[in-house]
């Protein structure tokens, strides 16, 4: 045979949740689900005052009746200080695993603390407001600034649709916004592959895009107080989280729209919900990509996701500033905003043309 074959040297480790339980009153199976996945010994529950009332007390009862010893830690914020406290508690009490109970903050603290400590954790969401309930990505305040932190995904996810459906509907619409913003994130990833030669996973990108498309097609099925709607959103968030595990990064679900949201978190006097901000970012970046941003916006409106800065409570000026700052949030993550490099007038024009700013 002629010629030589180039040596294959790729390698990757994919961390995936071992068990994802979704459904009506599935929280009652917490003890069994933990035992079935080999989680033994002491458990450290991380929650806040609200999520303790919603689900934490019941989880404690179930675990103790299942033979587990449980330590509680109620946090006041998702920051590195609380991550270190959680690690110290785990060390002091010789905990074997952690459980994060909440819409985001307790899960992010549990995710980072367990990852740093090298132990498994269980995610029990009380709301489906973003894909962090399943993914390896966390948002933490570090030195006064909210940052994205890479950790590890949960070993077990227990998403009780009765609990999630009873949460404020705005949280479910934020989760929906986070999912469908995958559409612009994948376009950014494809752009980075074409123009910068960035590593790209067809499997991860396809899963992410299909998940977004399914949710967009089923916009009329996302209704307030509906367990079926909660079921659909949680399953989609799970698929989005798995796509990130396959990719080994947040690329399939985080592009310019997420950088825009992170910029708003730093700029805005009162930032909106993460998924709502990402949806606004996607409207604008889809237009820059030449995609059908109007249909995307219309489907957001069907669900009740805000499509203007005014609906979120953010000023026009803050939107423009966030568009300009977004590329600097992660300079290494090439997106459409890195490519076009708008000035202030161009950013304002884009936001006005898409209706994100300027509405009465």
What do you see in this structure?
The structure is a single chain. With 360 residues, the chain is an alpha/beta fold. The chain folds into 2 domains: 19-165, Rossmann fold (3-Layer(aba) Sandwich), CATH 3.40.50.1970; 169-353, Dehydroquinate synthase-like - alpha domain (Dehydroquinate synthase-like, alpha domain), CATH 1.20.1090.10. Helices cover 53% and strands 13% of the residues. It has 16 helices and 8 strands. It has helices spanning 30-36, 49-65, 80-93, 105-117, 161-165, 169-180, 182-196, 202-217, 227-247, 256-267, 274-289, 293-303, 309-312, 316-329, 336-340, 344-353, and strands spanning 19-23, 42-47, 70-74, 95-102, 121-125, 137-142, 145-150, 156-160. It has a 6-stranded parallel sheet with strand order 1-8-5-4-2-3, sandwiched between helices. Strands 6-7 form a two-stranded antiparallel sheet.
Mean pLDDT: 92
Q: Helix and strand succession?
A: EHEHEHEHEEEEHHHHHHHHHHHH
**What's the number of structural domains?**
2
Q: What top-tier CATH class of the largest domain fits best?
A: Mainly Alpha
Total of helices: 16
Residue share in helix: 40-55%
Please indicate the percent range of residues in DSSP E strands (runs of 2 or more): 5-15%
**Measured on Cα atoms, how large is the radius of gyration?**
20 Å
CATH topology of the largest domain: Dehydroquinate synthase-like, alpha domain
Characterize the main sheet: 6 strands, parallel
Could you give the count of β-strands? Answer: 8
Unreliable stretches: none
Question: Order of strands across the biggest sheet?
Answer: 1-8-5-4-2-3
CATH architecture of the largest domain: Up-down Bundle
**Overall morphology:** globular
The structural class is alpha/beta
User: Separation of termini?
Assistant: 72 Å
- CATH homologous group name of the largest domain: Dehydroquinate synthase-like - alpha domain
């Amino acid at each position: 045979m002629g010629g030589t074959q180039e040596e294959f040297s790729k390698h990757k480790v994919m961390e995936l949740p071992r068990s994802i339980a979704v459904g009506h009153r599935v929280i009652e199976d917490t003890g069994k689900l933990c035992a079935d996945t080999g989680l033994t010994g002491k458990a450290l529950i991380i929650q806040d005052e609200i999520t303790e009332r919603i689900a934490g007390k019941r989880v404690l009862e179930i675990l103790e009746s299942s033979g587990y010893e449980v330590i509680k830690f109620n946090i006041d914020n998702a920051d590195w200080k609380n991550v270190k406290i959680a690690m110290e508690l785990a060390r002091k009490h010789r905990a074997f695993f952690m459980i994060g109970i909440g819409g985001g903050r307790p899960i992010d603290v549990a995710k980072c603390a367990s990852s740093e400590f090298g132990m498994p954790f269980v995610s029990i969401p009380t709301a489906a407001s973003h894909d962090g309930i399943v993914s390896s990505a966390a948002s933490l305040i570090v030195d006064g600034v909210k940052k994205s932190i890479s950790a590890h995904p949960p070993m077990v996810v227990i998403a009780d649709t009765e609990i999630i459906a009873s949460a404020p509907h705005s949280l479910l619409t934020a989760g929906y916004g986070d999912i469908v913003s995958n559409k612009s994130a994948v376009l950014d990833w494809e752009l980075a592959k074409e123009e910068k030669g960035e590593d790209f996973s067809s499997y991860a990108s396809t899963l992410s895009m299909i998940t977004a498309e399914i949710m967009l097609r089923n916009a009329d099925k996302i209704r307030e107080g509906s367990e079926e709607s909660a079921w659909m959103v949680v399953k989609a968030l799970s698929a989005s989280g798995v796509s990130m595990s396959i990719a080994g990064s947040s690329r399939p679900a985080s592009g310019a729209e997420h950088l825009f949201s992170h910029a708003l978190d730093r700029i805005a006097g009162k930032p909106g919900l993460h998924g709502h901000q990402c949806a606004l970012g996607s409207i604008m970046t889809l237009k820059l990509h030449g995609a059908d941003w109007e249909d995307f916006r219309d489907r957001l409106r069907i669900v009740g996701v805000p499509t203007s800065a005014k609906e979120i409570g953010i000023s026009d000026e803050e939107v423009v500033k966030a568009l300009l700052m977004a590329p600097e949030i992660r300079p290494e993550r090439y997106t459409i905003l890195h490519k076009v490099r708008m000035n202030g007038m161009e950013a304002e024009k884009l936001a006005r043309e898409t209706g994100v700013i300027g509405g009465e």
